[in-house]
UniProtKB/TrEMBL annotation:
Signal peptide range: 1-20
Official protein name in the record: DUF3108 domain-containing protein
Pfam families the UniProt entry points to: DUF3108
Keyword list, A-Z: Signal
């Protein structure tokens, strides 16, 4: 999974030029276009190709759902569900919650086929493993203070379209945290273009092109984000010597 590749990345400040004009985004800045954060269900096909465009794998399916509700304290929260299917088998499921409108995470519960569960809770910017999920001494002592405050990285496809796009050349620094990793990080994002993306027959959708720098040499991805609907329609990512694609089906 892409997220596992990011655990040891350098902090953004180490690889962004000091002279760059960068808009810093985290749950405390209130800069996201939250009008575009709506209840939704989207399915993506995910597959690999080599540098010549030869398909290397069959496609996995990702079902991703966002719903809104209210918690016991009367706070509005989001509920995020991500189900990963491979050859009709559910190989992982992530269920997460967070506060709205800040999108600060509250909980993360993951189940992996043949690997068990990994659960985390967020108290402010502090991440721990809930007592009922602690299986080892390491689990009991696990504690991460997110510096900077960060969004949940598994929700990148839902959060990146909320950036305040205005023009080609814009740069952002967005804070993400991969549950279980030792730190949160800023990641550099650049709006590299705007183009019409063919999606079916003669139908085209005008999209912003957003590139993320993962902080390792050659580790980047480009997202095609629909200007009107503000959703990721396509992603192309360099991943371990191959190219991974995520294509929205419906």
């Amino acid at each position: 999974m892409k997220q596992l590749l990011l655990l040891s990345h350098l902090l953004l400040g180490l690889f962004i030029p000091a002279s760059a004009q960068i808009d810093t985004i985290n749950p405390t800045t209130s800069k996201l276009n939250l009008a575009a954060f709506k209840e939704s269900k989207r399915t993506y096909a995910v597959f690999f190709e080599d540098s010549t465009g030869k398909r290397l794998t069959s496609a996995d399916l990702w079902d991703r759902t966002v719903r809104f509700s209210t918690n016991a304290s009367g706070q509005k929260i989001y509920q995020f569900d991500w189900r990963w299917y491979r050859k009709d088998t559910l190989i992982s499921q992530v269920s997460a919650t967070g506060l709205a409108p800040s999108l600060a995470p509250l909980s993360h519960n993951a189940t992996y086929h043949n690997r068990g569960d990994r659960n985390f809770i967020f108290t402010g910017n502090t991440v721990t493993i809930p007592e009922a999920s602690r299986k080892t001494a390491k689990d009991s002592t696990f504690k991460v203070v997110m510096t900077p405050p960060a969004f949940e990285f598994p929700m990148d496809l839902e959060i990146l379209p909320l950036l305040p796009f205005k023009k080609v050349g814009q740069q952002f620094a967005i804070a993400f945290y991969e549950p279980g990793s030792p730190t949160s990080n800023y990641y550099k994002l650049t709006v590299t273009g705007k183009e019409d993306l063919p999606i079916s027959g003669t139908t085209k959708v005008n999209c912003w092109l957003l590139q993320i720098d993962y902080g390792q040499q050659g580790a980047t991805a480009t997202f095609w984000i629909a200007d009107q609907s503000r959703e990721v329609l396509k992603m192309r990512e360099y991943f371990r010597g191959r190219y991974r694609y995520k294509i929205k089906l419906y």
